[in-house]
Amino acid sequence: MTFTVPDIAWAQLTPVLIVLGAAVVGVLVEALVPRRVRRVVQLTLTLVALGGAVVAVAALWNSVADTGGTEVLGGSLLVDGPTLVLWAITAVLALLAVLVIADRTATGEDAFAPQGAAVPGSGYEEAARAAGLEQTEVYPLVLFATGGMLIFPATGDLLTLFVALEVLSLPLYLLTGLSRRRRLLSQEASMKYFLLGSFASALLLFGIALLYGFSGSLRYAEIADAVRTVSGMDGLLLAGSLLVLAGLLFKVGAVPFHSWTPDVYQGAPTPITGFMAACTKVAAFGALVRVFYTVVPDLRWDLEPVMWTVAIATMAVGTVVALVQTDIKRVLAYSSIAHAGFVLTGVVALVQSGITAVLFYLLAYGAATVGAFGIVSLVRERGAVRAGAGAGVGAAARVPALATAGSASAGTGASDGTAASAAAGASAGSTADVVGTGSGADGAADPDGEEPPVEAEGPILGEATHLSQWAGLGRTNPVLATTFALFLLSFAGIPLTAGFTGKFAVFSAAVEGDAWPLAVVGVLASAAAAFFYVRIIVLMFFTSPHGGPRDDADDEARPGAVVVASQGFAVVAIGACAVLTVLLGVLPGPVLDAIAGVAQLLP
Amino acid sequence: MPSTVATTDVPWLTLLIVWPLVGALVLWLLPRGARAPGATADAEGTVAAGPRRYTRQIALGVALVEVALGVGALLAFDTGAARVHQLSETHAWISQLGVSYAVGVDGVGLALVLLSVVLVPVVILAAWREQGSGALPTERLRHYLALVLVLTAFMVAVFAARDVFLFYVLFEAMLIPVYFMIGAFGGPRRRYAAVKFLLFSLAGGLIMLAGVIALYLQGPGGPQGFLTDNLTGLDLPVGTERWLFLAFFLAFAIKAPMFPVHTWLPDAAEQAPAGTSTLLVGVLDKVGTFGMLTLCLPLFPEASRWAAPVIIALAVVSILYGALLAIGQQDLFRLVAYTSVSHFGFIVLGIFAFTSTSVAGSSFYMVNHGLSTGALFLLVGFLAARRGSARIEDFGGLQKVTPVLAGVFLVTGLSALSLPGLSTFVSEFLVLVGSFGTNRAAAVVATLGVVLAAVYVLWTYQRLFTGPVRGDLAGTRDIGGRERWVVGPLIAIMLVLGFYPAPALRLVDEPAAQTVEHVGGEPPAVEMPIAVDGDSEGSEQ
Questions:
Q1: Number of structural domains chain B divides into
Q2: Pairing of β A561-563 and β A379-382
């Protein structure tokens, strides 16, 4: 075998190079720049890099629209229309998500642990917090993940696909474990994500090996040729494609590979959840579309029953389980599973308009997701006022009471002043830290501990994620609640929001591709899904904040929600998401035209 | 039928749609202003200051200008060619999906647009300052009135839509303002009612969405593939056509509402503020029957004929069932809601009897029912505001205390039982006569509904207004000046159209004939000289 040096068209790679280059620079910044200015430098670098990636995509647009795209790096990257669209969507959503990540809010604290390596509850952690340490590594990690997400859907080579998968996943595993609040839950989520993710990677790798054994190549195009020509090795081919698809379906969170989603979405720092939910889905669906449309279209009759089952199960499970959730982040997690099912209906349609529909849906869903999680990150709960301890904003120690494994939750409030000694590690706010049970049972995060009544302004703690805490938000914070309602209506697919246009597009594609039963299931699932979105709107607007009738059965007292002021970054991001959601709902024409104009995959 | 569209120089319909939206935006953006001297601070903003004090006046002004615009549209409309979609505008909206912003009205559409814009100022006036339990503080009233104006825009647009996708979008989008109008401003069980309303409507709408998509793929496609004209007269396979018909019809039957998918209406009507119920039942539910008339029949003629016997049976059941349940109600709002189920039965019966007489009757019935039921809801609202309760047992002998209110209630009630001389009589008579030719048994049974109507109206009147005056009702106010302006215009229109229905019939007659042509219905057995000799209708019997 001879090795020829590939001719590299660097210009085509600029978006990827900018993002990954900035990530490397970010690592150097961590090492060399003084701590005082590190956050500013990192944030500027990240925003400039992501903005630069968008500009670079725009610069490539016309030439790709004319030529239909080129193979770069000897076919490892296919810079065609869908790639550009996916790059643009990923970069824009990542940019918005970084704005949410960067927001320290009025509490002066970001969403990340002051020192990720510190054992939760240890004196070391408290010392790190007291010293005002910050994990600015978050920014290069996000950039690395984004870089992986850019390569993932663009590659035309199974090995690069695997590498990109790892590049995008590893930073996400880390980021998931870095939550400032509820650290054990966060670390547990990280562990789960890592274990299940590695398992999925292994499946993917095994599938790649089988496909290589079948075709003798790792290139999509050559495998597709082999599918048409080689006979007698159907077992290898089928097993290989199913395993590769399974690896990809894991990343999009499709049933039966969805079980990580709720735990990880709940445990991860909320801004990271937004980033992960939006951008990972975009990248993974991009890769799935490319594999499904270019590698295995000739296996259509073999794979269709599998994919149909997956799509239907995803929509059904996501919708039905979301109905009974009581935690806002878990509701959004199951809703994201249901949305994965809706997108899958467009993927399995295997028609040209399906690509446009999927790309548009991803943009619509991503905008609403980043915005929704951005809002969740601003809705906080207030701890009780502590007697004796100086409970200034941000002074409360975020340390979990260490519950024995298996107990439903911990974090009993220490309102009697025992928390005065920070090193002792007593928890200040009762619900701030909750130990997951490890079983992933729904509602594990509900604190059962008795709560001291809130008398006055206590310290602002973590996010108020229990649904009952959102009651009456429409009365106290009408603008924020209205914006959140807008995102929920978009998720529900109400006309004149982006979500409706997206749903309409994917269902149309499904019907056009003779997958009308999928469209019917999708429509029914949408109707059921509307219920839990509407339930949140009912809570926010039609229920009194305090003392009013509660919708859910458990009527235990929880601290009410307060909305902390943003530093400005998150407001910009949420505002941009809201504008996108409305614009893509009312005037989707230009965006649809632009996507459809280039939505032609290279073979 | 490309020749059935006439364009316009002045975009009357767009004006009618945009103007209330502008009004709603103004209401929402009204600056708080400095507090008026002497005003006391209040968390709920009971006392508004600055420009917000004029919330009501601004909303009413916007609504009255809207009525003027409606009159302008009527004058620009050529009633001699009512079967043609006039005042039309067509612009590309989402050409990638084949969607256009296409509006235009034929006679029926215009009649319903006018009904919508006429009811809005009435509803705003009714919400002016509700006495007793229903009173809204000014600050919240501002949001309520803004939602009413948003809803106005959607109502006009949905009756004017000539694009199936646009129709669907509006059909769904108008749920949202109504949802908030019930859920945020209604009675004690408002959350339940609002959610039930939304989920029923949404479920129906989403099923229709599947039909909309499938229909588009059967059509010619292209950037104007959703225009109703491009989807009419398709040669659909029989099975496909029937499925599509069912998808559309189910959504409309829920909206209308017909037995057995009517159960959301009594709850919604009971819990919503009276003005909301007026718009909900008076106008919004007409979208259901309007959809059957203008989408189901022309788009799926074969399937309509196929399904007609079952639908007529359901319509007759609705008529009797609604009336019987109305008789048994204790809550006045629920009672009126059930009478509407009965009346919608008549409308559906007329539509699916496929004679030009019955279809014209149904079209006219939609307008009359909006006026009559709207007025009834508002009157019940007045009663409930006085008593703090809408239960019949809480009233008695009011006639001696509030004679004018009693009289107005009686006239409105009689319009609900279709007394000759009131416009509802004309339409109900046309429906029954028209149906008699093609569906004799159904028409005969439906006539029983008229008898039951007499029971629920007169017995209710008897229990509310006659007999000895209950002691605690002695000081009840009679109908006030503002309230006269609320119901006065509605009763006046009903009387005028009752004695001289010709202008209204001229609007609906031609479109009805055209619809029947499309469906290929049998010629009417009893041909009524309605358009020529309209004013003799009142003395037919």
A1: 1
A2: antiparallel
Q: What is the pLDDT of residues A228-285, one digit of tens each?
A: 888 788 888 899 999 999 999 999 989 888 989 999 999 999 999 999 999 999 999 9
- pLDDT, residue A431, reads 36
Distance between CA B368 and CA B112 in Å, rounded? Answer: 10
Question: Following CA atoms B518, B521, B527, B529 in sequence, which dihedral angle do they give, to the nearest 10 degrees?
Answer: -20
Residues ≥6 apart with Cβ < 8 Å to A511: A519, B210, B213, B214, B217
In a domain? residue A258: yes
Q: Do the Cβ atoms of B347 and B289 come closer than 8 Å?
A: yes
Residues from chain A contacting residue B170 (CB–CB below 8 Å): 495
Per-window interface: A 514-543 vs B, CB < 8 A: 516, 519-520, 523-524, 526-527, 530-531, 534-535, 538, 541-543
Whole-number pLDDT of residue B34: 53
| pLDDT at site B73 | 87
Phi, psi at A114, each rounded to 5° = -60, -35
Query: What DSSP string runs through B457-487?
Result: HHHHHHHHHSSSPPGGGTT-----HHHHHHH
Per-position b or e across A576-587, b if 16+ CB within 10 A of its CB: bbbebbbebbbe
Residue A120 DSSP label = T
pLDDT of residue A490: 93
Per the prediction, chain B carries an average pLDDT of 82
Q: What is the pairing mode between strands B85-94 and B99-105?
A: antiparallel
How far, in Å, CA of B369 to CA of A137, rounded?
67
Structural domain contains residue A243? yes
Beta strand A70-72 with A77-79 is antiparallel
Cα–Cα distance measured from residue B172 to residue B166, given in angstroms and rounded to the nearest whole number: 10
Question: Do residues A69 and A81 lie in contact, with contact meaning Cβ atoms separated by under 8 Å?
Answer: yes
C-alpha–C-alpha distance, residues A410 and A432, integer Å: 10
pTM of the model: 0.84
List the domain range (segments joined by +) for residue A30.
17-379+475-598
Q: Is residue A75 part of a domain?
A: yes
- Answer yes or no: do A508 and B217 touch at CB < 8 A: yes
pLDDT at B173 over 90: no
Domain containing B16: what range? 2-539
Q: Are A295 and A212 in contact (CB under 8 A)?
A: no
- pLDDT (0 to 100) of residue B524: 47
Total count of domains within chain A: 1
Low-confidence ranges of chain A (pLDDT < 50): 387-455, 547-555
> Closest to A519 (Cβ–Cβ): which among B198, B203, B213?
B213
- The amino acid at A16: V
Q: Compare CB distances from B199 to A505, A530, A543 and report the shortest one's residue.
A: A530
Rounded distance between C-alpha atoms, residue A255 and residue A250, angstroms: 8
Nearest CA in chain B to A490: B173
Question: A495 in a domain, yes or no?
Answer: yes
The DSSP result for A243-262, as a single string, is HHHHHHHHHHT-TTS-THHH
Query: Predicted ipTM?
Result: 0.81
> According to the model, what pLDDT value does residue B33 have?
60
